[in-house]
Amino acid sequence: MNWISNYVRPRINSIFSRREVPENLWSKCDECGTMLFHRELSNNLNVCTNCGHHMYISPRDRFAALFDGGIFTEVEVPEPTADPLHFRDQKRYPDRMKASQKNTGEKDAMLVGEGEIGRTPIVAAAQDFSFMGGSMSMYVGNAIIAAAERAVMKKCPLILFSAAGGARMQEGILALMQMPRTTIAVEMLKEAGLPYIVVLTHPTTGGVTASYAMLGDVHIAEPNALICFAGPRVIEQTIREKLPEGFQRAEYLLDHGMLDRVTPRTDMRDELITIARMLLGLGTVISGELPAPEAEAAPTKDAKE
Amino acid sequence: MTNYLEFEKPLAEIEGKAEELRALARANEGTDVEKEASALDKKAAEMLVQLYGDLTPWRKCQVARHPDRPHCKDYIDALFTQYTPLAGDRNFADDHAVMGGLARLDGTPVMVIGHEKGHDTKTRIERNFGMARPEGYRKAIRLMDMADRFGLPVVTLVDTPGAYPGKGAEERGQSEAIARSTQMCLSIKVPLVSVIIGEGGSGGAVAFATANRVAMLEHSIYSVISPEGCASILWKDAEKMREAAEALRLTAQNLKELGVCDRIIKEPVGGAHRHKAESIAAVGKAIQIMLAEMQGNSGVEMRDARRKKYLGLGSRGLAA
């Protein structure tokens, strides 16, 4: 044995085999600093078990927890023109896109799925804040339109989870044009008489708030989510005064009449089922075992005939 | 007194010299400076053509924001008769950043709505520099709805740095007001034409400019974010606004190529602020043409055409 086999080789091995061991079994709550075991945290939908702080959750994890048995089918989204403005800031836009796609494993900042929640068919769309700040791009617009079209076709509600810093600057005016485009998607649902429920998550700001996120039949927010048009920093610079604590947070908006409810993520699924079923005029969902479908579908009227 | 923009400094010098010479001549009788002065005039005119013939995007931003540029009120006063302002959102207040009311355009009753920036310190403060609060959008919603019910065409004039980022505006639902205004634009069954006369600032502009036809003055801009804002976020340096203005493709010419703007209204050499009457007349003519294009279409057709237009946007990018 020499220092190479005792010291150098284990070091080299550890560099190469690092991936096999989960890197962070523990994460720290951004709010209260409590160390949380990863499994416990994900079981609680990334809500701190100590203080109830809502941390980021990916659209896929959200859908896994939302849909019955975690089963959903992805709704295909038409691909938009890539980099229509040939945008370049300090980096080229296509390079930024590639980096985000690699980091998240997603195409863009919105995931659309269809399936059932509490045996109620729905289409759901979830915005991904980790993909370029969830920014509203042409793809995001296409995703919302595809989601609305799918919901209209299936005659089922659309539930949308918003999270964005605003419109994607790298797509310039075409990102801004997603405000009217997504509004048309909302109109489609409205005209078809279908519920459109928006769940506003942290943060939902800018052009997103000023279009599809504020046009729902029902607005539910996650606790303490920042929801605004202009961000607090911009406002402080404009009015040159400190803003009150909790300004533009979910509870503040609830107080100012912009939201219907503030609901913890862990209760969200049940609440969405309850609301969707009432809006659709369906009976209370039967939890537990599947009811025999045929027996349910044959009401007394048929029996008389 | 002309307000010169930063890039017009050399022009200001020449025009100033000509002015000085003429003042000198007026003071001392008998000195003939006309030859020299008109040579300077000629040089200034040439320079103006050269400067305005090829404005960079950032310079266009400056022209679009020029304090002397004709504003909404100037257009309404000159182009419409019997303008009858209608005030208030029936909810909270009347927003002076948004003008609106009934008026006649060449005899035909229409609903005209626009952002007004003001022309001096007093009116600018009164108009909040053209930055509307929720009440402004809600007033516009009310007026568009009224136009819809009485079958009046809607004309919007857009000139805003953006919706007002203030505490009260947020509390009273700035986002919701903008969203509902855009929604109203998309649902009315009357012709809706929009002219961007200066600055089309982000969501605050979309709320008025979601129209069947969108025209832009040659040196107006329409953007997702101000170049300064974009520079401070993406370049982490607000001084990079020239680069940001370039990258954002916010000029009327770029937007026409992208299909966001349907028509460019030419400005006289030197910009609308140097030739107000001419520019205003050109805008009036464009509005007439755009409205005439939709004559004979049913209400539903016009609404559906509007939706189809926006759904189709983005199918083409800029040429490489």
Description of the structure:
The complex is a heterodimer of chains A (about 300) and B (about 325). With about 300 residues, chain A is of the alpha/beta class. Chain A has helices at about 5-15, 40-45, 60-65, 95-105, 140-155, 170-175, 180-190, 205-210, 230-240, 250-255, 265-280, 295, 300-305; strands spanning about 25-30, 35, 70-75, 110-115, 120-125, 160-165, 195-205, 220, 225-230, 260. In chain A, strands 3, 4, 5, 6, 7, 8, 9 and 10 form an eight-stranded mixed β-sheet that branches. The longest helix of chain A is centred in the middle third of the chain and has 17 residues, at about 140-155. The N and C termini of chain A lie far apart (about 90 Å). Residues about 295-305 of chain A have low confidence and may be disordered. Chain B has helices at about 10-25, 35-55, 55-65, 70-80, 120-125, 135-150, 165-170, 175-185, 200-210, 225-235, 240-250, 250-260, 275-295, 300-310; strands spanning about 80-85, 100-105, 110-115, 155-160, 190-200, 215, 220-225, 265. In chain B, strands 1, 2, 3, 4, 5, 6, 7 and 8 form an eight-stranded mixed β-sheet that branches. The longest helix of chain B is centred in the first third of the chain and has 20 residues, at about 35-55. Classes of the chains: A alpha/beta (about 300), B alpha/beta (about 325). At the A-B interface, helix 5, helix 6, helix 7, helix 8 and helix 9 of A face helix 7, helix 8, helix 9, helix 10 and helix 11 of B.
